[in-house]
Design a protein that fits this description.
This protein is 36% helix and 15% strand. The chain is built from 6 helices and 5 strands, in the order αβαβαβαβαβα. The radius of gyration is 14 Å and the shape is globular.
Amino acid sequence: MKPVKEMVAEANLEVDHMPAAEARALHGQEAVTFVDLRDVRELQREGMIPGAFHCPRGMLEFWIDPDSPYAREEFRQDKRFVFYCGSGWRSALAAKAAQDMGLHGVCHIEDGFEGWKEAGGPVTAKA
């Protein structure tokens, strides 16, 4: 069995990642989409990055694939996609999967939403 920590470390060798403090500089840029991968209960409990697009982790591959009946227009845009989760583990694996599927401009916040809050990033309630 391969431990998830090892999978996350391997993903981080292959995908761009940055601490939340650095990701804050990208927030609000028109060419950047923040993608929140957390469960809806986490969003309701903790809020989210303002303007982020919510994509539950379990739907990511289906929403990215243009041939899927669940394909989403948000992933058809020529933008940089900044994935995040609670602590950076799910987002590392998701960024790797998205990159493997051919989505360009993918990166993730290595310290997650927790790091975002610690870095003083803005938070809003889930609409």
